[in-house]
Specification:
Two copies of one chain form a homodimer. By secondary structure, chain A is α/β, with parallel strands linked by helices. Helix content of chain A is 42%, strand content 21%. Chain A is globular and about 65 Å long.
Chain lengths: 371, 371
């Protein structure tokens, strides 16, 4: 069971903020991991949606930095002198899979909803897979099961700590509870930094439209903030937890309550949507006030149990773990047979490139036996 | 990196409450782990301080249950018909080590402060070691380093999730932060269910002596409650975190503030100590009231950073994560470069046989590559 002499051979899809942070973290730890654990990190390839650069002997730190710099300018990786350029990701997987390297890992730090077939292909070709991309695990149940089947048939492994709560040990904790035979009763989470921030702002008396405006200014929102307000990202995270629990749910199984009306969701532009947003201020002011009067606050809470799942605004006691949550922090709470009286709670910054990349890095180290 | 065909070959020291809970958890999951991961669990031996029963082909579930039943009556394991009885633990380690089994793991769920040499011996003979026993990691620095050296020289591994916060993922989180290159700034913890309960009771207006009486009645205390009140158990946990951080501390490096005076600590009997306890009620009443007046509460808090470590009663804001802690829950908070604004917090039941055994079980599964 020794880890000495291990190698991680990485084919990495997605060189956005998370992908770049991951490369930097890996480079910063590369020498120490080799010295302390004999663990080598060989970077076989880096890919964007427009193609991959491959190098079987592994890129140097300098070549990786050049690739990141080029990708940041949105130019094609084909312009770089190092490595072989391959125009498509399936082709890159086929080529790198053909090298039959032990310790081969495919990393997906994209936000693409089209990569599930490629990930299944990679698992079938002997790659372990590590994701921060939620979409391949939160699509149809058939897609999800195809990934599990590919793992089982090939003896490869799929890890995804960073998909829920970024670097917080949410998946690790769920996995440990299940594998040590605890009985899960309920999982609840506040899993959107954006919506957490808005809920806290409403509690502090800010009008809804101004709370959103502040969240946008601080960089907490998607370019179209409706993507946050509709709750879909939270629903994806909860679906991932539910499926790992063993609940065979299609995405529709989760009751999803948007923070805005259908009408506002359908405004043709972000500007038109924002212009109409103050319409909601009075409603949210009343809600906040009503809750305050009874010692409660509103939180956007996702709940999963065998009885069902929901993602919605809920009034909770101010003194509860969710009521005490502030700002953009994420919180996940596991009620189990062993943690029935006192649920197991994990809380902290649950979004951002650095902590998300750290979640991916931790998975890589677990695959290598270092964690 | 596949886990198929793995085996865990266990030599288990300590058949108290935690040890028994662990055997039951392992038995309950044995078949599923084999079916899902090809992981076999072979129980080579069970030991108390008075000797071990060994069986190289592994004990059956029935034999394990018989051994537990016998150990619960405090009778010698030599009375059992199954396995070979060996009178000392070093001898048991020597014999089982001689079998040269891959996947050999020594488990220490005792509370003994004398086993550090045996654990080093086991690591040297090819056993990985998993502990819930804090004492081998919280003795002299030389003892601690001898264990680390034995790991390095033999390529074996030492895991100890259950030593801090029982089944809560405290060590996993610390390890992940370190291995992914985060910069630790400060670790704080409320790590005694007993002292947490007493602090909450003081906050609720109960006199100190009655708070302790209630904690005793609920079974939260050691037979001699001064062992809790003096804070030594909390200090051991913090020393384990500090050493993993890389701080080369002797136990004396931690400033330790007892909740009772030296004079009371030195009473010859528990009864004499308890009789004098109401002496402290007025002091603690004033403390609680003084804190309340400024929106604060008292918590027994351990702090570690490169500047030093302390374990002491501290007044904290009622709104802080520690101020919001209630009852016997444990809480650990990591401030790091990545979690500077919002510390990473883990909270929940941090003591008890079931959750402690689960911490050990999780470590075993990590060694086998299942977690």
């Amino acid at each position: 069971m020794s880890t000495s002499g291990r190698e991680l051979c990485l084919l990495h899809l997605g060189i956005g903020q998370v992908g770049r942070a991951l490369v930097q973290q890996l480079l910063a730890r590369r020498q120490e991991l080799q010295a302390d654990y004999g663990l080598k990190i060989r970077y076989l390839g880096l890919a964007t949606s427009r193609g991959a650069l491959l190098e079987p002997s592994g890129f140097s730190a300098e070549e990786l930095q050049q690739t990141l710099a080029l990708a940041a300018t949105k130019r094609s990786l084909s312009e770089l002198g190092s490595g072989d350029f391959v125009a498509s990701i399936p082709e890159a997987i086929a080529i790198a899979g053909g090298w039959q390297l032990p310790g081969a890992v495919l990393i997906d730090t994209t936000a693409s909803d089209e990569l599930a077939p490629e990930l299944a292909q990679a698992l079938g070709r002997g790659f372990d897979v590590v994701l921060s991309n939620k979409k391949p695990l939160a699509g149809t149940l058939a897609e999800y099961q195809a990934l599990q089947d590919a793992c089982r048939q090939s003896g490869t492994r799929l890890r995804y700590e960073a998909t829920v709560g970024a670097g917080l040990p949410v998946i690790h904790t769920l996995e440990t509870l299940i594998q040590t035979g605890d009985e899960l009763l309920e999982i609840q989470g506040s899993l959107s930094g954006t919506l957490g921030f808005i809920c806290t702002s409403l509690e502090d008396g800010l009008p809804f439209s101004q709370a959103l405006e502040r969240a946008r200014r601080l960089g907490y929102c998607e370019p179209d903030p409706r993507q946050d307000l509709e709750g879909l990202d939270v629903a994806r995270k909860m679906l991932i937890l539910a499926r790992r629990w063993g609940l065979p749910w299609e995405p529709e199984a989760l009751q999803l309550e948007s923070m805005i009306s259908n009408e506002l969701s359908q405004e043709p532009t972000v500007a038109a949507f924002l212009a109409r947003l103050p319409q909601l201020d009075e409603e949210y002011r009343q809600r906040a006030e009503g809750a305050r009067a009874s010692g409660q606050v509103w939180r956007y809470i996702a709940t999963v149990s065998p009885e069902g799942g929901s993602v919605r605004l809920a009034a909770v006691e101010r003194e509860s773990s969710f009521g005490q949550l502030r700002g953009t922090d994420s919180l996940v709470q596991f009620k189990t047979a062993r943690y029935r009286e006192s649920p197991l709670i994990i809380r902290g910054a649950g979004a951002g490139p650095e902590v998300t990349a750290a979640g991916v890095f931790g998975d890589l180290l677990a695959l290598a036996g270092v964690l």
